Amino acid sequence: MEQKLKLEILQLYNQFKEEDGKKVDRIEKWRNLEPESAEFISILIRTQQSKNVLELGTSNGFSTLWFSDALKRTNGKLVTIEIEAKRTELARKYLTSFKLIENVELITTDVKDFLIEADPVFEIIFLDAERKYYIEYWINLKKLLDKKGSLLIVDNVLSHKDDVSEFISLIENDENFIISTVNIGAGLLLVTKQ
């Protein structure tokens, strides 16, 4: 990411963080991906030369900006899913203002509904949605990992360890998959097929 763009996006992150500090209800908060995690995933997109990336949980589009920028370099496409229309439109606004909208498809729907219909075309799937549904998502997520070399990245696995422990156990007990936790940001879980 070019330095000027990075600084502008980091200013936006600080604004979102300040806004979150004034909100009491967790659901009302933006709950953005930490910049160091966003940058790490962007590097993975570039090194894999990813063409198709899926983001589950757009929120206001902070992480979407990072992924879109990386995919511009690989001539790839990002599909991002958000259940709340207002958040989808806010993400669209930021993507447009940063000139990063061109390679992004924003979809407003329930992640579960999207996953049921999705085809295994994604090299990277980033999961940062409501954690209480992750176990429910797994049956369809693992079908998406049928594409050779596909990688599932799950956020908040260290910061919210208790919320995701059953989900992680479910994956650990599936002999078809291997996992690793990266101690960056709020903790990222990497999942791929054996």
Under CATH, the homologous superfamily reads Vaccinia Virus protein VP39
Between the first and last Cα atoms, what is the distance in angstroms? 32 Å
- Domain count: the total is 1
Mean pLDDT comes to 96
Biggest pleated-sheet summary: 7 strands, mixed
| Percent of sequence in beta strands | 15-25%
How many helices in DSSP terms?
7
Give the strand order, joined by hyphens, for the main sheet.
Answer: 3-2-1-4-5-7-6
Briefly note the CATH topology name. Answer: Rossmann fold
Say how many strands there are. 7
CATH architecture: 3-Layer(aba) Sandwich
Q: Which secondary-structure class do the elements indicate? A: alpha/beta
Secondary-structure element string: HHEHEHEHEHEHEE
CATH class bucket:
Alpha Beta
What is the CA-atom radius of gyration, in angstroms? Answer: 16 Å
Helix content: 40-55%
Unreliable stretches (pLDDT < 50, length at least 5) are: none
Shape: globular
Sequence-ordered SSE layout with sheet pairings:
Blueprint: H1 3-21, H2 35-48, E1 52-56, H3 62-74, E2 77-82, H4 85-97, E3 104-108, H5 111-117, E4 124-127, H6 134-144, E5 151-154, H7 161-172, E6 177-182, E7 188-193
Parallel strand pairs: 1-2, 1-4, 2-3, 4-5
Antiparallel strand pairs: 5-7, 6-7
